[in-house]
Amino acid sequence: MEKEILLFVTSIMGSLGFSIIFNIKGIKILIASLGGGISYSIFLISMYSSDNLTLSIVLASVTAATLAEIFARICKTPVTILLVPMLIPLIPGGELYYAMNYIIFGDLLNFNMKIQLVVREMGAIAGGIITVSFLAQFITKLKNYIKQSAF
Amino acid sequence: MELQKLVRYMLDMGEILIRSGAEAIRVEDTLERIGKAYGCARVDVFTITTNIWITVHTLDQSVSQTRRIRGYVIDMEKVEKVNALSRVICSNPLPLEEVHDRIMQINQTSRYSEKTLLLAYLLVASSFAVFSGGTYMDGFASLIAALILRIVQRMGQRIRVNIILLNTLCAAVVGLVVMLMVSVGIGSQIDKIVIGNVMLLIPGLQLTGSLRDLINGDIITGLLGIVESILKAVAIALGFAILLLQIGG
Fold first, then answer.
1. DSSP letter string, B84-108
2. Residue B83 and residue B141: Cα distance in Å, rounded?
3. Which tens digits make up the pLDDT trace of A128-151?
4. Which of A69, A85, B102, B206 is the residue whose CA sits 20 to 30 A from B58?
């Protein structure tokens, strides 16, 4: 459990640092960094119960995107601003680095393994975000439609 | 003449958005809405990460302009401000002079001070070294490496070194510092310490964003982003590799 708490805290700190680097201001920093921690803990919980990497990343990215969509509407700000720092803990930066390192040293076998992992993880993140954004658009359109037909 | 000005201001807004890290689809959407708000019959916008093309049509004339975009610094505050401006314009088209003034204001958006930025760098580097499985001592080593990384990066930016080359240089310097520290006994796992710093350099977010562009249907933007981020990643790995080959690690 101690290890999980450490991961949770460091993921929040990572998101916080990137929020500052990306010039995000005010209360949005708090939302973005806490969101990063929450989505990463969803990833950890899902990894524990299912041990399925792709599924866990999709769930975590769906969580981040949902939080971003909700708070973007509350703060009247574009969704990306909150979403980008929240995704930081999920990004397989380390794996991407290992993959490039392997190919430079000509170790194609390990490169293949790592790059597949990177593509799978990044695809899962992108897929999660897009699913949520389509859903959000659909709900907005449905709301407008209901409003219009009421009059 | 008014139409020419309008298109120019639209390009200014689009340029700020792209340079600050907004997605291509958002830029096209925003500019189209603004054009429509000023009564254009048809607005055609095409955006990739390095260029914007706009043609607006009214009943009796058409105006086209393009804008080449070079270099970008992610700045979410600017994205938000341009977004807010476009909301205002869409509900109530402002006089063009006022639009110009507001764009100038947005261009002067303040950033965090160099000290705060440096602290953010140290925070990211040390927390990701621990995050990826390093000890607290590794985190501390990563923090020191990030300090030196930031100094090299600032110097490189000041003398305008090519961005890919700068990444290689930064990676090599970080690698050297980390190796020296480990040999003295500060930190033990080289790869964990390095990854803390790699997170600051590696374009993982850009790669994810590009995949998102691809799935969204922005094929060209997506491909450009993917190629660029792979190049950057290779440049970083190369920086570390040069060092490892020299020392024979």
1. HHHHHHHHSPPPHHHHHHHHHHHHT
2. 40
3. 998 998 899 899 889 888 888 876
4. B102
Domain locations along chain A = 2-150
* ipTM of the complex as predicted: 0.87
Q: Residue B75 — φ and ψ, nearest 5°?
A: -145, 90
Give which of B205, B236, B243 to mutate to test A binding, by max A Cβ within 10 Å: B205
- Contact of B171 with B240, CB cutoff 8 Å: yes
Query: Residue B74 above 80 pLDDT?
Result: yes
Whether B131 contacts chain A with CB within 8 A: yes
Contact A92 B204 (CB under 8 A): yes
Q: H-helix or E-strand containing A20?
A: helix A2-21
Instruction: Decide if B74 and A22 are in contact by the 8 Å CB cutoff.
Output: yes
Q: Which two tokens stand for residue A39?
A: 């989505």
Question: B147-166, pLDDT tens digit by residue?
Answer: 999 999 999 988 888 888 89
Chain A residue at shortest CA distance from B171? A97
Chain A residue numbers with beta carbons less than 8 Å from the beta carbon of B13 are none
Q: What is the DSSP string of B131-179?
A: HTT--HHHHHHHHHHHHHHHHHHHHHHHTT--HHHHHHHHHHHHHHHHH
Q: Do A104 and B116 touch (CB under 8 A)?
A: no
**Encoded tokens for B164:** 């890919």
The neighbour count for residue A75, using CB atoms within 10 Å, is: 15
- Adjacency order of strands within the sheet including B51-57: B42-48, B51-57, B62-68
**A72–chain B nearest CA distance, Å:** 11
Asked if pLDDT for residue B195 goes beyond 90, the answer is no
Least confidently predicted of A25-34, A101-110, B139-148: A101-110
Work out the minimum CA distance from B64 to partner chain A, whole angstroms.
Answer: 28
